[in-house]
Amino acid sequence: MNSPLLQYLDNPTGTSIPSPCFVLEEAKLRRNLQLIDSVQQSAGITIILALKGFSMYSAFPLVREYLSGATASSLNEIRLVNDYMHVPAHTYIPAYRDDEFDEVLTRSSHLTFNSWSQWDRFNERVAAYNAQQQADGKPTVSCGIRVNPQYSEVATEMYNPCVPGSRLGATRNQLPDQLPDGLEGIHFHTLCENDSFTLERTLTALEERFDKLLHQAKWVNFGGGHLMTREGYDTEHLIGLLKAFRTKYNVDIILEPGSAIAWQTGVLVSTVLDVVDSQGIDVAILDTSFAAHMPDTLEMPYKPRILNAYHEPVAGKPTYRLGGMTCLAGDFMGDYSFDAPLAIGDKLVFDDMIHYTMVKTTTFNGVNLPSIGVWKEDNSFSLVRSYGYESFKDRLS
Q: Do 83 and 177 belong to one domain?
């Protein structure tokens, strides 16, 4: 084990890290941010944080050292950007609420509309707000429209915004040939943890349908799904694509990756509470939950990696199905093998559990949320937040 955090967790005498607990490694987050910053500097573009993938606001001061802003998809996310990134938000919400819209405007620098009908409904309020901002010598809000290029290589339908019936983005036949006054951006988002070659093919489809509108735009938001921090990602190819597109259309380019920011930056620590024989299958019951604490593993679905465990069953080694602590029958993941039998009190450490995990946790069945901590760059642990009854009760009435 070459990571100080993992060496610490592997200490048989125990640690000060509670269980269950999300643990972010600051050094790994900084490593990702440095790579992402090198891309935005080399390509001459802007990359911002997507809160839907990583909303750990205690880490925002570090993020701000490299990224200038963040994108939000709800008023609550917008407020988090304002309060902890200390900047207006790049905002995209599939449908704006009338009673929230004015506050959304005042808290945003960019506003993307999901449909032409949304633009029709709210554009006069935007124009009035921007006129007053100009009169007061204050920044205005730049508006754009989300488009659907009708091309996506995302295999899981739940995560594919281009399937027939998708509510996300306007297709070309729904838009005019001329962008109206006040609408100066094009936004698309059809990737999900994809590489730059998928982006290249996506850009071909985008340009085939929206070339005329792209030439009229001032900025184009490429959305998220650009997993540039994954090992093997060709960042030079990405930079080349971005430069060529920026030059061809004379636009500012914005990327808002979700997974890439916190990719491989931390773990979820859990503990074995019981080991049972279930009709010939050994089951280890944990103090965490796949349904409540790792819902992406069931939605995507994918099988998370566990440190010091075999990802697939190995003949002759102790093998277990892992169960969560809720009463949901499907709250389990299997099967993993280990070098030694599991026992009550053993620690299991789930790898890569910071992006799209912490943001989706629930208190289903009244289970406590995992604590949140940071493994600092000086190799010390800091507990940021722990949860109890109040966190469960406050979601109910």
A: yes
